[in-house]
Amino acid sequence: MINLEKRELTLSTGQIAWYEYDREGDVLEIIFQRGEATGAIELTESMILRFDWKTNAPLSLSFISFSRLLQQNQYGEVHFQLLTDEWPDEARDKIWTMIQTTPLNEFLKLSSYAPAHAHQIILMTAIKQPNLLAQAA
Amino acid sequence: MRKWFVHDSDGREIYLTEERWEHIANEHSELRNHLEDVLNTVRRGKRRQQPQDPQAYVYRLRCGTLRPPFNGILVVVVFRFAPTENNGDIVANNFVVSAWGIMMRD
């Protein structure tokens, strides 16, 4: 039987979101709006964003192997590479808009890495409220 | 409660419970009529180990029957171990956790 732990969270805008944590599967889904998505992409290898194509509103953000994502190492905060090469061209602007605005920017922050002798910057994201999210896990 | 058993392209047996399928169909309703496509993603999909969890894998496969702009399915499978009900022997317990319709780059 799926053991889903559900919590309610009030965002900075006053909007209500819901955490649903599947402990056996170690998947956390933050639900901003319930309903059928009209778009979804892999933000990173461990994060999936479902959204409304017309309004650019995020519906849910899922974290795979969630408890592992929160584990810090001796070097500090862990950042995850955004899979920008996998995003369809027609969805890129929408995704950037969503990542940089509420509610997603309450949970994710953007960063980048410029490897030595490389011309391409690697875009990354980190989990912004690990302590808050850890309460769900 | 029903379980669907499938084998991935390397012969590993993986199951999806009816309860988890109902959860997928309710929470990711874009997949509601695509049970067979989800199972087919496990059978034929490309497998990727999760970088943070060696027991978790993602299966991805293009799917032409989804409503655009969706064109692929992503399934999360965990490979764990569990004791049998009969004698307590530890056996593989590989099951589908969840699935999403996704947009894959052409």
Q: Specify the helix fraction band of chain A.
A: 10-25%
Radius of gyration of chain B: 14 Å
Order of helices and strands of chain A: EEEEEEHEHEEH
Question: Major sheet of chain B: order of its strands?
Answer: 3-4-5-6
SS content category of chain B: alpha+beta
Q: Outline the biggest β-sheet of chain A.
A: 6 strands, antiparallel
Strand content of chain A: 35-45%
Provide a short characterization of the protein structure.
With 137 residues, chain A is mainly β. Chain A is built from three helices and nine strands, in the order ββββββαβαββα.
Provide structural commentary.
The complex is a heterodimer of chains A (137) and B (106). In chain A, the strands form two sheets. In chain A, strands 1-2-3-6-5-4 form a six-stranded antiparallel beta sheet. In chain A, strands 7-9-8 form a three-stranded antiparallel beta sheet, with no helix packed on it. Chain A starts with a strand and ends with a helix. The radius of gyration of chain A is 15 Å and the shape is globular. Chain A is built from three helices and nine strands. The mean pLDDT of chain A is 91. Chain A has one domain. Chain A has helices spanning 66-69, 89-99, 130-134, and strands at residues 4-10, 16-22, 27-31, 39-44, 47-52, 57-64, 80-81, 108-113, 122-127. Chain B is an alpha+beta fold and 106 residues long. Chain B has helices at residues 18-27, 35-44, and strands spanning 3-7, 13-17, 46-50, 53-62, 72-83, 90-102. Chain B has a four-stranded antiparallel beta sheet. The relative contact order of chain B is 0.22. The mean pLDDT of chain B is 95. Chain A binds chain B through residues 1-2, 4, 20, 22, 24-27, 29, 31, 35-42, 45-46, 48, 50, 53, 60, 62, 64-65, 68-69, 71, 85-88, 90-91, and chain B through 19-20, 23, 27-30, 48, 50-53, 56, 58, 69-70, 74, 76, 78, 97-98, 100-106.
